[in-house]
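Work through this protein:
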Amino acid sequence: MAKIAVIGDRDSVLGFRALGLEVHTVEDSTEARHLLRKAAEEGCAAVFLTEALAAPLQEEIDRYVSKNAETGEVMQVQPNAKVGDLKFIDTNGDGVITDADKVLTGCYTPKQTFSFGASLDWKGFDFSFMFQGVAGNYIYNGTKQMGMNGHGGDFGNLIEDVFDTWDFNPSGSKYPRLGLAEDNNGNYTKFSDAFLEKGDYLRLKNITLGYTLPKHIARHIGLTNGSLRVYVSIDNVATITGYSGIDPEVGNYGLDAGIYPSSRFFNFGVNLNF
């Protein structure tokens, strides 16, 4: 998967290391300029700069050019980019960002699918539980991408994550600028790994507690050869995941486009045998 780098002063950027991003601390714009060039050469998918460094680096953004391998023409790769925008990789070296630059960055099929559980019985009480989960897959968080697209107000209300964009927090944001009037760079309209997340999860799928009446009591209520059991169970009790969407169990070939999440069910019942 392509790298995402964060460049800025120590106090502003170290928190991003906990998110697994590549962090570079610098003292001034000269050092930041050097790192920005290095990140472009190494093929970083996106580079985030703090506000203090971004202003003097607009010229560096303007110099993000590529030489066409066939024609030899030097072209500006992202002519519409502004400070706070995503930086896309010109993987085929033709000087423009198109679908031809797309690369495989993950698979929606889990590498591991597992489940486990147990059941216990004691003096008429019975208790059981079951966990299930997956690991090694990726989810494209299209719900977040749509919910943060402010261009033209096409999607109505925006989600809370917009407060973690460059517009509201230029010195330490996780996401690029919104572009409320326009998004010519395609921060929120192009598919990119900026919204690709790990889909690993562990879910307590079911938990059940029951009680079966002793036989001598059952006989008193007319169940001479039968039994009576009452129980309560809960489905989809809790989920542990690093995925930031509503539910990591999205299906839909790994595309979360507002899929309705798994509901939690509470069940009360009676098992009666004659």
Remarks:
- DSSP finds six helices and 13 strands in the chain.
- The two ends are 61 Å apart (CA to CA).
- Residues 112-139+198-273 form one domain.
